[in-house]
């Protein structure tokens, strides 16, 4: 299994973005998959999946989004302006690298949870870059988002953009864990395996 790791300058100019790729060089590559992780996650949580995909003939690319994993300058912070757009640009830079390395292969974008929303923004901004879109753990519009947005703006006004949103995180975890009997921790909603929840 070939594994490559590298850092690139972040789109917001604030630090570097960690990226990694996996390829099984013993079999012909049939396509590329770029995986975009979710909120409070990182590419390391997808290693087992990436290795499985590589053994099935896919070249897998992943990154740690700004504020996550090995791309943390300030945990959870996307930058002072255009944070969301810069996340999409960081994914775009990874896609362009993948296409440079393997120009003959089709490319599929897989986004999970928050990563699914980034992937949706990506396909609207750069539709010509990918041949397919895979969305996992995504959602549609809900009116509660207006209240959440107002709460987030209030927190930013009170504490600044780099302040950890503990209250919002607790509220989200409570909401996401509401159907889980005896959740092992606040992140139990992320995975059905309690050992995985505890280790992450």
Question: What does this protein structure show overall?
Answer:
By secondary structure, this protein is of the alpha/beta class. The protein folds into 2 domains: 2-140, 3-Layer(aba) Sandwich (Rossmann fold); 143-200, no CATH class. Helices cover 36% and strands 20% of the residues. It has 6 helices and 6 strands; from the N terminus they run E-E-E-H-E-H-E-H-E-H-H-H. It has helices spanning 47-55, 83-101, 114-125, 144-159, 166-176, 194-199; strands spanning 2-9, 16-23, 31-36, 58-63, 107-112, 132-136. It has a 6-stranded mixed β-sheet, with helices on both faces. Helix 1 links the parallel strand 3 and strand 4 (58-63). The mean pLDDT is 92.
Low-confidence stretches: none
Number of strands: 6
Strand content: 15-25%
Sum up the overall morphology in one term: globular
> How can the largest sheet be summarized?
6 strands, mixed
The CATH topology of the largest domain turns out to be Rossmann fold
Overall structural class, as computed from helix and strand content, comes to alpha/beta
At CATH level 2, the architecture of the largest domain is 3-Layer(aba) Sandwich
Give the N-to-C terminal Cα separation.
Answer: 25 Å
Q: Strand order of the main beta sheet, please? A: 1-2-4-3-5-6
Number of domains: 2
Question: SSE string, helix = H, strand = E?
Answer: EEEHEHEHEHHH
**Tally of helical segments:** 6
**Tell me, what is the CATH class of the largest domain?**
Alpha Beta
The CATH superfamily name of the largest domain is: Alpha/Beta hydrolase fold, catalytic domain
């Amino acid at each position: 299994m070939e594994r490559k790791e590298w850092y690139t300058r972040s789109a917001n100019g604030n630090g570097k973005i960690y990226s990694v790729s996996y390829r099984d060089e013993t079999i012909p590559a049939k396509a590329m998959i770029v995986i975009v992780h979710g909120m409070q996650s990182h590419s390391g949580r997808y290693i087992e999946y990436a290795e499985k995909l590589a053994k099935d003939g896919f070249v897998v690319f992943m990154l740690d989004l700004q504020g996550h994993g090995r791309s943390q300058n300030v945990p959870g912070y996307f930058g002072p302006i255009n944070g969301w757009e810069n996340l999409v640009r960081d994914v775009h830079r990874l896609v362009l690298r993948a296409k440079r390395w393997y120009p003959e292969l089709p490319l599929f974008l897989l986004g999970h949870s928050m990563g699914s929303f980034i992937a949706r923004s990506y396909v609207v901004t750069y539709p010509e870059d990918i041949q397919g879109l895979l969305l996992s753990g995504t959602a549609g519009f809900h009116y509660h988002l207006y209240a959440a947005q107002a709460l987030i703006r209030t927190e930013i006004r009170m504490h600044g953009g780099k302040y950890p949103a503990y209250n919002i995180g607790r509220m989200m975890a409570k909401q996401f864990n509401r159907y889980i009997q005896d959740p092992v921790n606040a992140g139990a909603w992320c995975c059905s395996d309690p050992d995985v929840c505890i280790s992450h």
